[in-house]
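so the lab meeting is tmrw and i was supposed to have these ready like two days ago... anyway. pasting both below. for each one the top line is the aa sequence and the line under it is the structure tokens. i havent really looked at them closely yet so no promises
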Amino acid sequence: MVPANSNSVGALIAAGITLGTGQWQSTWAWRAPSLFQGIFSLLCIIVLPFIPESPRWLVNKGLYEEARTVVAQTNANGNLADPVVIAVFKEIVDTLNWEKENLMTFKETIKHPVSRKRLLIGMSPGPFSCIAGNIIASYYLGPELDTAGITSYNQQLKANVVLNVWCLGCALAGTQLIARWGRKPTALLSQCLLITCLFIIGGLSKMYADNPDGASKGLVYGDVAVMFLFQGFYSIAWTPLLYLYPPEVMNYAIRANGLAFSSFMLNALA
């Protein structure tokens, strides 16, 4: 669940930086956040050569000893004789051998009904998360805050920082809750709550737009609170599910291609 929560951490850092640079009266108000973002890309380039290779990929290429070493390093502090290491390594080897014997190649991704079903199910979280309304809530947060009565640029930046803290906390909680509640129940409950929040946001925003001068602070705060609830409900379910569910339903033979299709669907609709 590191990738999903890392996105939330990155969004929080970006929100904090833009809050600070937003007061600068120069083009560096946007250049500095962009430059800072590049630092993390540079760190990735530096760290990647030291990250162990996937043991499944190593076994698939016939590098058994290297794969066994990686499994031992990640499961038992390098102890090759640990029972967990032996069991995990055997499971990897047996699974890959079975898939090779049963001709689980790239063509199998779309050739057999079972593989097509796995692929479609694995691709489904991307479109479902996009039609949940999060795209509107994320891309148009500024106009939404305007319609809620928060028109100050500085206040909107502060609200964005608090919102990202809230989303990070909900995403961390969601990674634990989906293991207890189940994937489908969590997604269905989240979707129902998101729909409810959208209706409430629309109604409160309409009330403010009809009479902005006479709108009470309770109306403004209530609208913003529901916006926060909306983002929280999304983060609890869809933020972890986007990264957890696709690889769970795809076997090794179609996982790489399936995850590529899943990412394509998500980014194409985002």
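ok protien two:
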Amino acid sequence: MKIFDIYANKHYQVMNKTVACIGFFDGVHVGHQHLIKQTVELAKQKGLTPACITLSREPLQVLYPERDIKTIMDIEQRLQAIGSYGIQQCYLLHFDQAMANVSAADFIELLKSLCIDTIVAGEDFRFGKQNKGDVLMLEKQMPTKIIPLVELYGQKISSTTIIEALEKGEVEYVSSCMNRYYAIDGFVIHGNKVGSTKLGYPTANIEYNPFIVLPRVGVYIGRVIYEGKTYRAMINIGHNPTINRRDFLSLEAHILDFDQDIYGKRLVVEFSKYLRYEKKFNSKEELIEQLDNDVQSVRDYTYEIRNV
């Protein structure tokens, strides 16, 4: 997928015409996927390039830097996911204070300069300074295809509902919303080695992006992807309250049937099912007994999503 960097207060003349979907696409959930598929199909019918228009950053992170605003995906994950559904060209709007101050009318003029044949937008899409522009305004100025929101279990799917579900540990619901397991990637760093030296359960400590949503504290069934291979894993998010409690949240994965030196290597951690909340045990032996049960739950689990 080709990336075109777009900045505020500049106009561009792109040579090839496109059909372009527009949105932030955080999580690239099934609603986004439907929007993207509609874009690819319409572009095919018209003999044009399927494209997307998205932002480099979550607007609230720029407008309210003092808030702890987190996203489901970082920009690399988001663009990779968008491209995997057939989008060939991406207009990446660099969101800063200048872009935040672009009026709705000027934003439309910016879109017109990108040589877009048709815009594909969700019915709730807003744009321009203070979100004053909507799809009704947009379709008066440009050919626009408006796509209704997608529902799951009677509820409209949105990035906000997915974030709320993650904070509750409802990763199975999130998997349904995204058609894939929720995943966090990062590099393996050195920990205190309690898992390997005291418990018999070595873990990979993952240095994760602090702007990405962590699921609820607890133990999860999941998978780890390393160098293209997928492994069953017991995942823990928490403070390690029984032995060497930490003040910060750590992300650790015990990878089953795995014995490799992976310090400094990149892993992808996928969350399949919430097992239990993290708790302080009365003894090391009690903790080990629980970990034995947790690992057996991981071995017995049937993964419903097979594509990585």
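from a quick look at the 2nd one: Residues 2-156 form a domain with the Rossmann fold fold (CATH 3.40.50.620). The two ends are 19 Å apart (CA to CA). will dig more after coffe
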